[in-house]
């Protein structure tokens, strides 16, 4: 089976639909002795310009021009998205900076204080729904240690029994509630 006759038939069919304007068809229609290869100077600039003026090529050029417009629009959208992302990042940085400043200010306002307890009240069995609590008397004021475990209850009882120091730590914002307890054996 030979493909050459089919190709020439295809070329003839296309020639019937469109005038013979392609360089390939012009190349085929020239007598054998007058054929010039396209890559070796067979096509001139004038021929290319003439081809560009013909309707099928004008349509291709228009399609290419239309395809370039969405690409330009895409670049614009990409730039807008990048700008929005940068603005969002700047806003997040400003927010994080403001939150950090607020936390630092609160931490500076909360000063810790400590004192040695000279007595305690241990609630062995609290009321239903109430947390385990120990009250330590520090500087003649009772301060509460909430949610104390049974081990802490036992350690505080032993510390007072053996004469060890029980040191309570609280912050200035809530001086009646102990944050921690330290037992110092002397």
Report the uncertain regions: 33-41
Total number of beta strands:
5
Instruction: Please give the oligomerization state of what you see.
Output: single chain
Strand-pairing-aware structural class: alpha+beta
Going across the major beta sheet, what is the strand order? 3-2-1-4-5
Question: What's the architecture of the domain at 112-184 in CATH terms?
Answer: Beta Barrel
| Major sheet description | 5 strands, antiparallel
Q: Cα distance, first to last residue? A: 110 Å
Rounded to the nearest angstrom, the radius of gyration is 46 Å
Strand-and-helix sequence, N→C?
Answer: HHHHEEEHEE
Please estimate the helix content.
40-55%
CATH topology of the domain at 112-184: OB fold (Dihydrolipoamide Acetyltransferase, E2P)
**Averaging pLDDT over every residue, what do you get?**
75
Global geometry: rod-shaped
Total number of helices: 5
Tell me the name of the CATH class of the domain at 112-184: Mainly Beta
Region (Disordered): 1-48
Biased composition (Low complexity): 1-38
